[in-house]
Please model this.
Amino acid sequence: MQKPSKITVLFAIALGLRLLGLGARSLWWDEGHQWLIASAPSLSEMVDRWWSNPAATHPPLSHLISFGFLRLGDQDWLLRLPSAILGALSVPLLYHLARRYLPSPYALAAAAVLTVSPFHIWFSQEARMYALLCLATLLATICALRLSENPTGARLTAYVSSIALAGYTHAFGLLVLPIHAAWYWTERPNLSKAARRSILAGGILGAILTLPLLAFFAFRAGAPFEGRPFSLAVLPYSLYTFVAGFTLGPTVQELHASRGFDTLLTHAFLITVVLLVGTVLLIEGLLQLRRLPRGGAALLFMGLFVPFVAAILFSLVPGFTYNVRYVSAAFPFFCVVQVLGWRHLRNRGRYRAAAALLATVVITVLSLANLYTAPLHYGQENVRGAVAIWTRERATGQRLFSFRASAPVLHYLSTELRTLHEGLSLDPDERRRQLDASTEMAAPESIWLLVARDFDRSVERELTMNFTITYRRAVEGADLYRLQARR
Model:
């Protein structure tokens, strides 16, 4: 029997790591809206929900994929299964991309980094489009390279389709066009005339296929968003998450709750080590780009930095926020640059390379251990746990309101209990009117309120001032209250 290839083994490991604990974390706000749209009873209803839901700010492809998987059942792990599969498929794609510029052992090393990356596993276990965005970016890039080698009609079709795939996954998927344009400009003297024409035609046709998205983005431009001003602190944070993921050091909830340095000081040693390792490998890797062919160097450099520049510019628009998930398409290129950096350290001295490798392995192992052993602690809001408490503690007929959690709450409520649920408005005045009317109608009985992501405790203060709180239970990232009108 023929032994499986090394990249096949890596793919199997990647898939296993992404399937392990796939349903452990509760759905959070974004995943809840993914479910709300994809759980529609028919395809036409799904499209209607996507178009009419203000929270659906991304193209429809990921919702369509989720819709197909939810025909098999309504479990959390099924909703996330496409991300796990697509995330694992990115591993062999990255190997084939890296193999064009690196010897096979180093290309395998880049694929191995992606395989065990806590950052990539996190998004591969989330019912969103970011695992697909990574895969689509890699696929489009490989299709462009294959087209440059042999400009056939089939390869042109594959390239155009892969651009459309990226664009209909996420708006930032269209960043493959400037990335490929930089590669094309530097590689142009080495390309045949037919190849140059095919690549230009593919880019133009791919852009044309995504033109309908302009209408969608224009329509969504007026939707309300809760944005935060851009801060330079997001850059070291992005590097930290690329190296260690979200399950080492301060949790997502701690970072949201505390904007000061107190939380960071608690984890100062760990943060310093992670940033030091990440910075050294990044700088060493970038310096090694000059040893690659010009086209390869341009491709890796632009693939790494274009998503960051776009996300920063995006965050400068009022109402929008920089988010590290928006730059997830840059992560495969980061893996290659990391390996380049480690190779350079190895050439300069074995001890330096061994120290960097050991530190990276320890960081990865610790982060993965937290990911699999404490998923609720490091996850987003635990809506599933809060709904379970309400179901157990409520009296017959008592209503449940929710704030910043309406979609995941609906997911976890049984069909008969969904009639007792109502989501609250994000507008403070409207939210107060809803609660005032409900507590008056319910008197002398109580109503229940589930609040998610109240990091600054502003909603808790609002409730304390205006209502009598007879019960409060906190779970990870969420709070459950029982309220009565004040007499």
Residues 383-485 form one domain. The mean pLDDT is 91.
